Amino acid sequence: MADPRVSRLLSVYAPASVGNIGPGFDTLGMAVSGMGDLISAQLDSSLDKDRIDSITGAWTLLPTIPDQNTASISARILLNRAGIETPFRMTITKGVPGSGLGSSAASAVGGAYLAHLLAGEIFRDAEILDAALRAESEVSGGVFLDNISACLFGGVTVSHGASRTSLPVGCIEGVHLLFVIPRTTVKTSEARRILPDMVPRQDAVGALANTAGILAGIMRNDPELFCLRVSDPLIEPYRKNLIKGFDSLKETALSSGATGFAISGAGSTMVALTPHPGRIQAIENQLQKTLKILGIEASIILSTIDPKGVRVANS
After folding, report:
1. Same domain as 161, residue 18
2. Per residue in 188-201, is it b (16+ CB within 10 Å) or e — as a string?
3. Model confidence pLDDT, tens digit, residues 232-287
4. For 27-77, how does the pLDDT look when each residue is reduced to its tens digit (9 = 90+)?
């Protein structure tokens, strides 16, 4: 017989995401397939406080103390808004590898969406977004919506940091992504610290043009244009210095058939893009050779754009 003090166990899947998508600094986000967090939770009145029972699959050590983890922080924010004081127990299986793929954002969105389900699906998307953003801000000290909005809505999103709002733009088929994920990580704080306060006008104009091109590629359903415009003259020249072998890997990808190559988020993960499936194997083979020559330990994962965003697991 079920324990009446314990609610039904619910599980959600929160996908990895690419912040910036190259030139769209702090503005564009993109959910990706095949990588994501599986988070489960249930209300348990036998507990005296919220509890994270386990975290598995993480590349780095993550806190199991509830008020230090974005998943449990965002969940408690929404449960409190719903007037639910009953503690919850949670397990987190991390499926977002490396750094630069929105790992903490996936946890934050997954936790908020779980609370939404536990409370009876009473919250709007904007409230789920806000809870995840508050959890991220509490842990990182910053307000960054690009990964959070992509994980929540799926596809490609546009965020406006000052108003703390995000809009889903849509998805595009035929974009193939090859992620190069080094074992070394880059701290977002360091990746932001190295950025200059002033940038050349032509670099800013180039980034705006390419950002518009990415959105035009979606609206025109043109994967070639989408991949071509993922080129970043604004931020990449500074951040690439934190990623070993970046220039060599970019040259390898482009010369072996990739249409675009960019830093994923703040790095160290990188992504090669092509609308041509017949080129995927050649690009991967050449990237593997370059990684070996450079002595870089990294995984290469093939992916596409995830159109769904966070969802009930296995749905």
Report:
1. yes
2. beebeeeeeeeeee
3. 999 999 999 999 999 999 999 999 999 999 999 999 999 999 999 999 999 999 99
4. 999 999 999 999 999 999 999 999 999 999 988 778 899 999 999 999 999
Task: Please count the structural domains in the chain.
Answer: 2
Q: How far apart are the first and last CA of the chain?
A: 28
Beta bridge partners of 93: 38, 56
By residue count, the chain amounts to 315
Residue 62: domain span: 10-170+306-312
The rounded distance, in Å, linking the Cα atoms of 272 and 257 is: 10
Token output for 177: 């992504």
Whether pTM > 0.90 for this model: the answer is: yes
Both tokens of residue 309? 């965003």
Q: Is 287 found in the same domain as 222? A: yes
CB distance 51 to 72 below 8 Å: no
Same domain, 121 and 206: no
